[in-house]
Amino acid sequence: MQMTKHFHLSEFTRSGMAATLGIDQSNPPPAVVERLAAVAQALERFRALAGVPLRVHSGWRCQQLNRLVGGVPASDHLLGWAADVSAMGLPLEAFVERLRAASHRQLGAFDQLIVESSRGVLHASFNPRFRGEWLRQDGGPKSPVSRYVASQST
Length: 154
Ligand SMILES: [Zn+2]
What we know:
Mean pLDDT: 94
Bound molecules: zinc ion
Order of helices and strands: HHHEHHEHHEEEE
Helix content: 25-40%
Radius of gyration: 15 Å
Low-confidence stretches: none
CATH class: Alpha Beta
Structural class: alpha+beta
Strand order of the largest sheet: 1-2-4-3-5-6
CATH architecture: 2-Layer Sandwich
CATH topology: Muramoyl-pentapeptide Carboxypeptidase, domain 2
Largest sheet: 6 strands, mixed
Number of helices: 7
């Protein structure tokens, strides 16, 4: 199912880990599909700002998969409000700086954007509580999360 011009539902449901473990992620509940469509709309804006296609590393996760990948129990991935993305051919920090250079209007409403440097992805959540938080998490899942400050070393 094509959700927006550049994003297909399967990009948000496929998982190498799920396939390996025989977890069926192919039929998300309708409410999850609706949320993922909103996420895809938001990611179209991010894609335009990045200037390159985005790769979705992880989108929706069922409970079982979320536990196995070490996701937090209240993860927005469970509800279909979040996706972990990278920009093709762009280092993570460069992708992030392009987003941060954008106006609020260009970027649109978001809940949390977490720069996960160890995984090389941006966790982008669009839960409609829309807190607008920029955070970073450098040590992988369950490591400390801090406010995002642009890196000086790159
Ligand atoms: Zn995530």
